[in-house]
Amino acid sequence: MEVLREKVEEEEAAEREEAAERAEWAEKMERMTKTAEVSKEETIMTQDELRDLEKRLTSIEISIPAEYSFINKSLIDVTKLPPSYSTNSPKEEHLLQVADNFSRQYSHLCPDRVPLFLCPLNECNVPKFVSTTLRPTLMPYPELYNWDSCSQFVSDFLTMVPLLDPLKPVIKEEEKAMPKKYTVKPPRDLTSKFEQEQENKRLQEIKNQEEKRLREAEERLLAEEKAKPDPLHGLRVHCWVLVLAGKREVPESFFIDPLTAHSYSTKDDHFLGIESLWNHKNYWINMQDCWNCCKELVFDLGDPVRWEYMLLGTDKPHLSLTEEDEDVLDDDDDIDNLGKEEEDKSFDMPPSWVAQIEITPDEFETRCPNGKKVIRYKRAQLEKWAPYLNNNGLVCRLTVYEDLQCTKVLEIKEWYQNREDTLELKHINKITGLHVDYFRPGHPQALRVHSYKSMLPEMDRVMEFYEKIRVDGLIKREETPLTMTEYYQGRSDFLSYRHINFGPRVKKLTQNSAESNPRPMVKITERFLRNPAKPADEDVAERVFLIVEERIQLRYHCRDDYITSSKREFLRRTEVDSKGNKIIMTPDMCISFEVEPMEHTKKLLYQYETMIHLKNEEKLSRHQAWESELEVLEILKLREEEDDAHMLTISIYDTKRNEKSKEYREAMERVLHEEHMRQVESQLDYLAPFLAQLPPGEKLTRWQAVRLKDECLSDFKQRLIDKANLIQARFEKETQELQKKQQWYQENQVTLSPEDEDLYLSYCSQAMFRIRILEQRLNRHKELAPLKYLALEEKLYKDPRLVDFVKVFV
């Protein structure tokens, strides 16, 4: 009974819910009917209102935008294109109709999606189906949403992290293990702790203010970025390359950017979705939801639920199934198709109308239209040029800006190629004004890196060199207005470091330069590496020449089992006193500290010989320091000339740009042409013009033969005379023009500028060269003319047509 009672209660509750739903539905329909009636009453207009509305609507002008074309027709000569560019075959017309029908159905079924990219206009404004623009060797092209955000610019500078020394803990443990029975008390710290605390507070306050300023600047830049959202986010549509997995051992599908040739995963966050993709055989529409970009897309083109195909073809990709599903489908197909004839409903894609791409060597070297390409990033701009397009060899420039509007430049990087000065990279910091030039191996001064703020001498700069190329082993030179530091490597004297301190230069009336008026040297510090051939107590580690104080300090290398090293100091005095008496070596002129005293080092003779040797070394070091100053001036002068000239190197195989190779080739061609002409002249019939004067078919008489011989010799003689007169006339003309130019120079010599004098000297050099050549030609012609005349006379006597008559006559 309880079960029946529960069942009855459930039925009654269901009836009550159904009655409530009916009442709610009736109330809703009644409310909608009233609303429709009210709206119908409101929409009733008078005749005047209708005329007024029609008048307003007709006054609205809609500007229809012209169809956008991404092809620059000014760079294309349409008349030279094949007929397939300007016309469509019947099969292509049929394909366009199929594509139009397919597009209409798609727009009707999917009105909220972007129109399909099916039949764009080509160079001749003729619609072409996208699949026919591809050749069979090309890969499928997906129509993808744009790479929405530009790639972030990554600075080339790396933050150097100091490495922990693994030996420090061991040293500390050893120090702890050492007995501390005898220790030296450290000196008292007499500095004021209050002043030190105040200074630390001041520095910390400055540091906090700087951090606050940087933080505010960063927040301001972030606010500027957030204040300007991208209005075209998700609306840009571009074409990319899709490589499907499976064939050619491709493990997984991936995208390729056709402009940069960079590959990306299909799960990359920058790809927002795919509208469609196509190859040279078919066209597919993506029916999958791209809410999570392309991460969850399935690239199984045989699945009509995920990819709607346009053309029904026999080579359509098959659906990816398991082996069991494939066996079941095969059995079902065999049963369904039993006794039925196969109906071919496939559509063969027309062949590609695009001509084969031919790239000439010049176009390949240009790399982009007009040889220049500009790529803009967030706070950066990258410019690229083709080689040899710029006279200074510039091929790439990267400009980094501080703001998003790209108005304030932070730094500039310029890459060069084919420079004679081997300049490879120039880095300019606009904030600090620091210029850094990088060079390839091959610079005349073995320069590798040059850092500077000004090209004026005796300013802050750093020069690095290729140590294997330089004989002196110099690898680095640092210069300031008052110091110069040099670092060496691989020297036979084990010198590794030299530091020179300069004093103020004594002003002279003449020009103050390092060559005429060098800076006075105050101190020279040199350091040496360990020489294993010498004992540590005799191997100098550092020597200091205090030139103004007339002292020389030596510090020797420390022994392996010692913690202190020997030191020695010499008081350098003049060899004679004020009265002219010779000063001898005294014990107070040498102060030394030796770890293990030796008898021979305490002798005055040893100390005297050491001091004389150090004096000579001091002269040598001062001379080398002076040569270093001259070398810096020479490098600066050379760099200014190289920047002004910016000559480029050209390969000998580049016959287009190499003038020397071109001149050599033209000279060889001229020699071959002259040789060919001589061969042709030797084969010419020298009697043909004179035999043509005789009646055809008439037999030659003795008198006619003699006359022919005389006329031929006379004509040849006259031509030799005319050629000599022509050379003589050209020689006289050049001589007269040179004399006129010399006379003009004598009259205007005082008022001429250096440029005019250079032009005059250049003209005189060229004129003298031409006169010398003409003179040689005239002398050579005078020598060869008689020989040529005798040679022709001998040929006439031996000619088979004249030999009988001439011999009898003679």
TrEMBL record:
<feature type="domain" description="CEP76/DRC7 peptidase-like">
    <location>
        <begin position="237"/>
        <end position="310"/>
    </location>
</feature>
<feature type="compositionally biased region" description="Basic and acidic residues">
    <location>
        <begin position="337"/>
        <end position="347"/>
    </location>
</feature>
<dbReference type="Pfam" id="PF24667">
    <property type="entry name" value="MORN_DRC7"/>
</dbReference>
<keyword id="KW-0963">Cytoplasm</keyword>
<feature type="domain" description="Dynein regulatory complex subunit 7 C-terminal">
    <location>
        <begin position="698"/>
        <end position="804"/>
    </location>
</feature>
<dbReference type="InterPro" id="IPR056290">
    <property type="entry name" value="CEPT76/DRC7_peptidase-like_dom"/>
</dbReference>
<dbReference type="InterPro" id="IPR033551">
    <property type="entry name" value="DRC7/lobo"/>
</dbReference>
<dbReference type="InterPro" id="IPR056292">
    <property type="entry name" value="DRC7_C"/>
</dbReference>
<protein>
    <submittedName>
        <fullName>Dynein regulatory complex subunit 7 isoform X5</fullName>
    </submittedName>
</protein>
<feature type="region of interest" description="Disordered">
    <location>
        <begin position="1"/>
        <end position="22"/>
    </location>
</feature>
<dbReference type="GO" id="GO:0030317">
    <property type="term" value="P:flagellated sperm motility"/>
</dbReference>
<dbReference type="InterPro" id="IPR056291">
    <property type="entry name" value="MORN_DRC7"/>
</dbReference>
<keyword id="KW-0206">Cytoskeleton</keyword>
<dbReference type="GO" id="GO:0005856">
    <property type="term" value="C:cytoskeleton"/>
</dbReference>
<dbReference type="GO" id="GO:0031514">
    <property type="term" value="C:motile cilium"/>
</dbReference>
<feature type="domain" description="Dynein regulatory complex subunit 7 MORN">
    <location>
        <begin position="369"/>
        <end position="651"/>
    </location>
</feature>
<feature type="region of interest" description="Disordered">
    <location>
        <begin position="322"/>
        <end position="347"/>
    </location>
</feature>
<feature type="compositionally biased region" description="Basic and acidic residues">
    <location>
        <begin position="186"/>
        <end position="210"/>
    </location>
</feature>
<dbReference type="Pfam" id="PF24671">
    <property type="entry name" value="DRC7_C"/>
</dbReference>
<dbReference type="Pfam" id="PF24656">
    <property type="entry name" value="CEPT76_peptidase"/>
</dbReference>
<feature type="region of interest" description="Disordered">
    <location>
        <begin position="184"/>
        <end position="210"/>
    </location>
</feature>
<feature type="compositionally biased region" description="Acidic residues">
    <location>
        <begin position="322"/>
        <end position="336"/>
    </location>
</feature>
